[in-house]
């Protein structure tokens, strides 16, 4: 497996099914001795985390570990599995790594039932526009929440205060809070939504009812009670094509003005029976006769390297797809950690073997694992190409957008991406199990670092167009409209 394939796994983990030990072990509240054992494993894992000190000093890490220790032990003494899970979640977000978190899909069945399958969810989809919660689809059965409704308060707490309470539990790279707000939206795209997990644990409703104060699109204010729903009811509202389906996961259409639009909401294809490569090749062949091509990536966190065939059609020389230096913190997995990790490729256990000793505990990757450049395709796509981007793009799509800008062949419309220009962590992962509680968290193994100083931020679009409440209420898409106008008017060189 070359490093490109590993990089493609950056966003895989939130979409993977539970397997092996994670599927059968019970949810157990650790005793005092067990809590200490769990802490020792966490410390061993942090010793090889490649991004631990990207934003934190050793003193910061020590302080955060001490706070985790106190919270975790307090949860154990109280007999609360929920408090132990929250303590670990909160600690991992302090690293400011978008790929370090207790993966909802790798927990035990008992933990999933106890932590996530609760009748606590809000019965509607929504986006955060700044600190405003804006309804995009009403599943309450009340008809009271038309698209564009602003939810001012939930159970007496302002929506902004709810956001503030959940943000410290939300993963993202660096101080990229746009990614955190994006992850806390509910779109019917994930089997377990991030917002639902932490709202259910921290702010559950009383008596199965959410009491809302709202402003409808016609500016009327009102109070409304809506039923809290469970996991099955949330999943029943989903519209996405599932990962294991053989149905197309993306859509393609040519508008009356001659501009082709390709919507790619996700690139996680490892469980899919669908031949995405053939589908994409055929659509790119068709797009060659269009006036332009607009690729919508705004809901796409990442997955496989599905953007490479697009770039290959646009470039006329080899393109380095990943302008970051990869480093790891270990030659072989430490003995203290080895019994508590699993992975899909056991070569990760010796990831640093054969790599250059970079000093100060860092190692380069061996030659066999280094990234390959994207080679030009013999089929050229000589039309203007735009990509719609936003804060969800934090993994494989972050890498694609970085390469797209380097290519000079794709114009970027929308909002700043997730991820971080200071680099991200991922590539290979250990699914790390705390031995006493059985809680799993994802441990990224490779740190990607820029070769020159970069800001603590995502990638800025060429044309900045932010989402608005009015656009949601009207059902319009100013970002797509602007990209289509540009593609229709632009003369490709």
Summary, kept brief:
30% of the residues lie in helices and 18% in strands. It has 493 residues and is of the alpha+beta class. Strand 14, helix 13 and strand 15 form a beta-alpha-beta unit.
Give the structural class: alpha+beta
Helix content bin: 25-40%
- Oligomeric nature of the chains: single chain
Give the N-to-C terminal Cα separation. 37 Å
Describe the structure.
It is built from 15 helices and 18 strands. By secondary structure, the protein is an alpha+beta fold. Strands 1, 2, 3, 4, 5 and 6 form a 6-stranded antiparallel β-sheet that branches. A 6-stranded mixed β-sheet has the order 7-8-9-14-15-18, with helices on both faces. Strands 10-17-16-11 form a 4-stranded antiparallel β-sheet. Helix 3 packs antiparallel against helix 4 (about 60-75) and helix 4 packs antiparallel against helix 5 (about 80-95).
Secondary-structure map with pairings?
Elements (H helix, E strand, L loop, with lengths): L2 H6 L12 H4 L7 H15 L11 H20 L3 H14 L14 H8 L7 E6 L2 E7 L11 E5 L2 E2 H8 L10 H7 L10 H9 L6 E7 L5 E7 L3 H6 L14 E4 L4 E5 L12 H12 L4 E5 L11 H7 L10 E3 L13 E2 L14 E3 L2 E2 L21 E5 L6 H12 L2 E5 L10 E9 L6 E10 L13 E2 L4 H6 L3 H12 L4
Parallel strand pairs: 8-9, 9-14, 14-15, 15-18
Antiparallel strand pairs: 1-2, 2-3, 3-4, 3-5, 5-6, 7-8, 10-17, 11-16, 12-13, 16-17
Helix pairs in contact: 3-4, 4-5
Task: Name its key features.
493 residues, 30% helix, disordered N terminus
């Amino acid at each position: 497996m070359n490093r490109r394939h590993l990089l493609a796994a950056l966003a895989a983990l939130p979409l993977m099914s539970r397997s092996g030990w994670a599927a059968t072990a019970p949810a157990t509240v650790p005793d005092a001795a067990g809590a200490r054992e769990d802490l020792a494993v966490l410390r061993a894992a942090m010793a090889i985390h490649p991004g631990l000190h990207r934003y934190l000093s050793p003193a910061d890490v020590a302080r955060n570990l001490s706070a985790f220790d106190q919270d975790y032990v307090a949860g154990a003494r109280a007999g609360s599995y929920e408090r132990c899970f929250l303590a670990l979640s909160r600690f991992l977000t302090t690293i400011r790594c978008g790929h370090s978190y207790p993966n909802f899909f790798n927990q035990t069945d008992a933990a999933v039932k106890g932590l996530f399958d609760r009748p606590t969810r809000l019965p509607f989809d929504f986006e955060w526009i700044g600190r405003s919660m804006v309804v995009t689809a009403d599943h309450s059965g009340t008809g009271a929440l038309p698209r564009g409704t602003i939810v001012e308060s939930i159970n007496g707490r302002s929506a902004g205060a709810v956001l503030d309470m959940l943000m410290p539990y939300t993963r993202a790279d660096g101080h990229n809070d746009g990614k955190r707000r994006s992850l806390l939206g509910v779109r019917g795209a994930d089997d377990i939504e991030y917002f639902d997990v932490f709202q259910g644990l921290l702010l559950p409703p009383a008596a199965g009812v959410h009491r809302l104060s709202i402003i409808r699109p016609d500016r009327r204010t009102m109070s409304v009670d809506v039923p809290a729903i469970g996991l099955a009811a949330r999943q029943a509202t989903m519209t996405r094509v599932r990962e294991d389906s053989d149905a197309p996961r993306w859509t393609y259409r040519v508008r009356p003005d001659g501009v082709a639009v390709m919507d790619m909401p996700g690139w996680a294809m490892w469980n899919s029976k669908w031949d995405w490569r053939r589908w994409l090749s055929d659509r790119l062949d068709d797009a060659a006769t269009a006036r332009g091509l607009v690729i919508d990536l705004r809901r796409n966190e990442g997955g496989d390297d599905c953007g490479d065939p697009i770039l290959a059609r646009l470039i006329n020389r080899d393109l380095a797809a990943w302008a970051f230096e990869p480093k790891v913190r270990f030659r072989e997995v430490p003995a203290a950690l080895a019994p508590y990790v699993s992975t899909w490729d056991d070569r990760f256990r010796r990831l640093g073997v054969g790599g250059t000793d970079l000093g100060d505990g860092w190692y380069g990757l061996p030659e066999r694992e280094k990234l390959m450049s994207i080679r030009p395709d013999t089929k050229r796509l000589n039309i203007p190409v735009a990509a719609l981007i936003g804060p969800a793009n934090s993994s494989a799509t972050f890498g694609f957008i970085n390469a797209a800008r380097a290519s000079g062949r794709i114009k970027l419309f929308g909002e700043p991406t997730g991820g971080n220009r200071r680099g991200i962590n991922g590539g290979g992962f250990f699914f790390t199990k705390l031995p006493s509680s059985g809680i799993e968290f994802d441990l990224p193994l490779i740190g990607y670092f820029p070769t020159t100083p970069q800001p603590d931020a995502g990638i800025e679009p060429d044309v900045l167009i932010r989402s608005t409440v009015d656009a949601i209420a009207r059902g319009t898409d100013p970002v797509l409209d602007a990209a289509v106008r540009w593609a229709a008017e632009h003369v490709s060189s």
